[in-house]
Design a protein that fits this description.
Helix content of chain A: 25-40%
Number of strands of chain A: 10
Strand content of chain A: 5-15%
Structural class of chain A: alpha/beta
CATH architecture of chain B: Alpha-Beta Barrel
CATH topology of chain B: TIM Barrel
CATH class of chain A: Alpha Beta
CATH architecture of chain A: Alpha-Beta Barrel
Largest interface: A-B, 32 and 25 residues
Number of domains of chain B: 1
CATH superfamily of chain B: Aldolase class I
Distance between the termini of chain A: 44 Å
Oligomer: heterodimer
Largest sheet of chain B: 8 strands, parallel, barrel
Number of domains of chain A: 1
Strand content of chain B: 5-15%
CATH superfamily of chain A: Aldolase class I
Largest sheet of chain A: 5 strands, parallel
Strand order of the largest sheet of chain A: 5-4-3-10-9
Order of helices and strands of chain A: EEEHEHHEHEHEHEHEHEHH
Helix content of chain B: 25-40%
Number of helices of chain B: 16
Radius of gyration of chain B: 21 Å
Number of helices of chain A: 10
Distance between the termini of chain B: 49 Å
Amino acid sequence: MKNDKLIIGGHEFRSRFILGSGKYSLNLIEAAIRDAGAEIITLAVRRANTREQESILDYIPEGITLLPNTSGARNAEEAVRIARLARELGCGDFVKIEIMRDSKYLLPDNQETVKATEILADEGFVVMPYMYPDLNTARDLVNAGAASVMPLAAPIGSNKGLATREFIQILIDEIDLPIIVDAGIGRPSQACEAMEMGAAAIMANTALATAGDLSLMASAFRQAIEAGRNAYLAGLGRVLTRGAAASDPLTGFLRD
Amino acid sequence: MDNQFFVDSAHLSPEALEKKHRLENDPSFRENHMEYLPGMEKIESDVCARVMEQMASYDYTVYTAKDVKAALEHGVCSVEDFKALLSPAAEPFLEQMAQRAREETGRHFGNTVYLFTPLYIANYCENYCVYCGFNCYNHIQRMKLTAEQIEREMQVIADSGMEEILILTGESRSQSSVEYIGEACRLARKYFRMVGLEIYPVNTEEYRYLHECGADYVTVFQETYDTDRYEQLHLAGHKRVWPYRFDAQERALMGGMRGVACSALLGLADFRKDALASALHVYYLQRKYPHAEMSLSCPRLRPIINNETINPLDVHERQLCQILCAYRIFLPFVGITVSSRESAAFRNGIVRIAATKVSAGVSTGIGDHESKYSGKETDGVQGDEQFEIADNRSLDRMYRDIAGEGLQPVLNDYLYV
């Protein structure tokens, strides 16, 4: 398993846990790196250029990849502007596209996301779009030049787990890019399940941020993600839906 | 006991006094408060009708402990549940409400608390709102900052570390024109990351202009959603027109503003009904403009210059806390602002439960930031304040106090795009 790498836009990562940006806390970033093993940390650009004493940018250790997101964008044009600003701020070439036209559930706008992906991929960004798990959109994102596809598991911050399980499975089965499950993962067991399904990585924030013991929860996520990944690589044993397997096959009478 | 709002100033001429008394005592002398004045834009909207229908039929005495318990058990709080949480039957459940509210706040906002400060640039006013320190019959030091003075005030505030500013004026189109306010917004964009406005309601195109000047949030307090009570409190001026004020947030959104805030001024009328209407105003607006960022404030009446006796009547801290918990449970995604009208102790407590935004380094006077922030006397004239504040903590102090509550103070979470 040592050679099992997560590859996004040609960049290699050992960790399959990505810290989301939702809840702002430096303790959280520290725990995510130290205990969850995160190598990618999301950063909301709208909070980056601040004069606050404890700016996140100053805090990110070397070797950690910053993933600026476009939260606050309401359409493709705004997302593109925020991504360019992130690059100017020195956040690198990675960008997570988040476009929301809904302030209540913060659900992503798939159409605008495809448009923004196309523009930013053309400009050389490593584009990681957050999306509602829809196969047609995912294919459009591939064609637009996305480096991964990030379907939501449940409404952001809801900790409701894999509410969109079946649709994420379709993306995993049909799309040749890393499928990174984002938003809604509330427990390590849910992260583990998504990894068993074949997800390439998990992005979470609230599940850690709202835990009683940040550090312990961060390491629980690391273990769960590793366990799920190993189970996927090992090939899950068959799952019996009903009763026991017949020891005498029904077709045992066939002679030639 | 009701508030006694009418105060006569010895500085008024006999003619002015006579007019004032007539406005106060003779309803037929007052304009129709439901009729638009020339120049006021009328928009097509059903938001007002929906809010008013719910408010009119709200009888909070029918709710029982059982309704409140059910409301607290439901995963999603319905309008009916919200009505139960605002009712007197919910008062014994305040602690449980606070627990649930804290959970919702944490889920949607984490442990963050945003900080901002208001900047009053003028206190001229053409309205006679009987409870307000700026009202046109109140004898106070009036003032309007020049562009140069505005910039100086902004520098002082920005130097304190503040990144978000809320620009306020008294309600006088002639003294504080839309262009004057637009100029203030342009200056503010140089010093601050986020610029909000709390000014007299304007038309859609004027909101668009102000947005282009750099403002992105509009706060309008409806004062009270009880139109009859509104009529008795806002006796003259443009502000007297209740429906034009109600639609202000919608016009602001139509004009391109990113977010809007609603509120009643608690203590003017039946606070349970006003709290219901404030939240429903946000609720229906959000359904119609799902992209907009919505927030609620919760100001209570405060004493003013020349009337120390004004108070929020039956809206004590417990009631205010109940309202804020109910807001949070019903609308978990909206911002809730608690201003310096409330004490430091209340604000320290409520940021742990429901509030997501508090002001710091506050002055409600005009042109006095330099003297207040530095503690030095300055030679310039200063305009009097709109109301007395109860929490005068500086930004530094507030920052430390919030961090001391185990929360993360945030100066900016915003990008003007």
